[in-house]
Amino acid sequence: TGTIHILDHQQQKLSLAASVGMTSQTVSQIEEIPLHENEPGPDEKHCLIYLSREAISQNKVVQRNHLKSQQSSDFTGREESDTCIAVPIHINGLAEGIISVFSADSSYFAPEKVSLLSAIAKQIGISLERERLTKETIIMEERQRLARELHDSVTQPLYSIALFANGTSEHARLGNFDKVLQNLETIDKIIQIPLKEMRLMI
Questions:
Q1: What would the pLDDT profile of 73-93 be if each residue is shown by its tens digit?
Q2: What are the backbone angles phi and psi of residue 7, rounded to the nearest 5°?
Q3: How would you class 53 by CB atoms within 10 Å of its CB: exposed for 0-12, middle for 13-18, buried for 19 or more?
Q4: Number of H-type helices and E-type strands within the chain
Q5: What is the pLDDT at residue 69?
Q6: Strand ranges of the sheet holding 2-8, from the earlier edge strand across to the other edge
Q7: Whole-prediction pTM value?
Q8: Mean of per-residue pLDDT scores for the chain
């Protein structure tokens, strides 16, 4: 019986990503675990919610034995579950999620089992990091594509504007104000071209 929660930094909460052996009622209760709530009371300190918060805040494995039977059944639907362990999922050394596992046998979480859970948590962290890097790469490539398109759409109009601006200055110096107005209207039309393309890109 266990769960996997992933940290949502923006919302400051743990979001349920997967669960096994939990009752539907429990799943609805732990879909979201806010990181900042009131301190637990003496009868609540072993609860999965508070264990998850503790593991995240302290960035270490947290284990609690001898959970009260009613409390255990509330979370697992089985009266006999009395031990819980919460293992952080690390990305670049930071806790970005939690694996929580319940067992009826307090001796189940021997050092080798804890090491196995930590290894699983590490692999999940690696997968999450790869996914994030893939998304970041896609975003970066899209930004670069937009930058290239923006550069191409602006360069030619700017060159044309520079030419017309030089001509307009010369007409103004010679007193050809009709030509000045004509060139200004042309410049205004040229300016609208990249502006329209920029609106389409955004």
A1: 455 455 445 688 899 999 888
A2: -75, 130
A3: buried
A4: 5, 6
A5: 43
A6: 32-34, 13-20, 2-8, 94-103, 83-91, 62-64
A7: 0.61
A8: 79
Using pLDDT thresholds of 50, 70 and 90, give the confidence band for residue 97. Answer: very high
Instruction: Tokens for 184, please give them.
Output: 């200004």
What are the DSSP calls for 71-131, one per residue? HHHHHHS-TT--EEEEEEEEETTEEEEEEEEEES-TTSS-HHHHHHHHHHHHHHHHHHHHH
Closest CA to 103 of 70, 80, 69, 125: 80
CA distance 55 to 18: 18
Under the banding of pLDDT at 50, 70 and 90, the label for residue 6 is very high
Distance, CA of 59 to CA of 94 (rounded, Å): 7
> Which pairing describes strands 62-64 and 83-91: parallel, antiparallel, or unpaired?
antiparallel
Q: How far apart are CA 8 and CA 100, in angstroms?
A: 17
SS3 7: strand
Tokens of 201: 């890109």
Residue 5 near residue 101 (C-beta atoms within 8 A): no
Is the predicted pLDDT of residue 136 greater than 90, yes or no?
no
- pLDDT range class, residue 201, cuts 50, 70, 90: low
